[in-house]
Amino acid sequence: MGRRNQHRERSSLAGPPWRRWIYGIIAIAAISALLYWSRRSSTEADLHVSPAAQTFGPTKENYGQAPTPAPEGMAWIPGGEFSMGANDPPDMDDVGMKAARDARPIHRVYVDGFYIDKTDVTNAQFAEFVQATHYVTVAERQPQAADFPGAPPENLVAGSVVFAPPVHPVPLNNYLQWWTYVKGANWRHPLGPQSDIKGKENYPVVQVAYEDAQAFAKWAGKRLPTEAEWEFAARGGQAGRPFVWGDDFRPHGKWMANTFQGHFPDTDSGNDGYVGIAPVAQFPPNPYGLYDMAGNVWQWTSDWYRPDYYQELAAAGGVARNPRGPDSPFDPSEPGERKKVHRGGSFLCTDQYCSRYILGTRGKGEVSTGTNHLGFRCVKDVTLPANASLSASEP
Question: Quick check: is 278 in a domain?
């Protein structure tokens, strides 16, 4: 669901030519995906059914306390060695199995210690950045014809992608039934010009493209986390748990994250207390003191997305040290789009369609595209004193 494609596709949203054009794109993408996965089928079969590949080893946290006090609003993550990836979902349902497909095989990874924001970056924090730098986000900029060859001039309007639930149940085979490009949608107006963020200073900022998140991180003296760093932090020192908080989706009947209840995509019942996005830190933190590492809004990471990257790491053997993702992106469902990995799921995740609140599962997003369920948090590197080091603990 790239911003580039959205600008090309909005020439006649209601007319038959647009529908035929869209269905043609979907068919081409499906054929590309089929060819891609068929080429990898024998390798995937070997990797996915191997018992060893589905085993989580112990997490070996590094020794010692944080070498320096944590910056305000951040938590110390000791780093160490852990098993990365997603196992079979607890209920083994088809939706969950699809969510875990590109998060296999489970493989061993080591990451150095780092600091990470306890919450997603909020509207108030992003507003401070914009006020200080006069930064203009991607969604607020007029798209240039040179960047979108073939797009009709009337489609080159500033805006972004918004979840627009249908008024009745629909088949779940075409996400264009519940996503739309809205003129004037941006971080100040997440749902379009008629919406705003007044009174929502403590909500996560959304409608941020990858370069917007990068710009904020640089201004704050931080950076975006790698996918491996993000997962190590989300696991909180625990190994193999399916959820950030443990083994049960609703322990003792308690909601632990802002996800979708009701019938997707038309009816969100809000049983967890929220219909749509929630303020940050409304649910219990994980063992490292981090909030909303599952649900509420997706989070950008710095890794390019490829569905076969874990297979490459596993094939290399040993422990991958501080992996930073593949050198280039590729998504067989949209071969022309450049995508980064998303993590954590959002308020739209449900076992009916997207169960990526399961720990270790992966999302993806085109780098120039923001949505109203996508935000980010930052990390900060540690500068160790001379002759100081952190060493991995014993299992």
Answer: yes
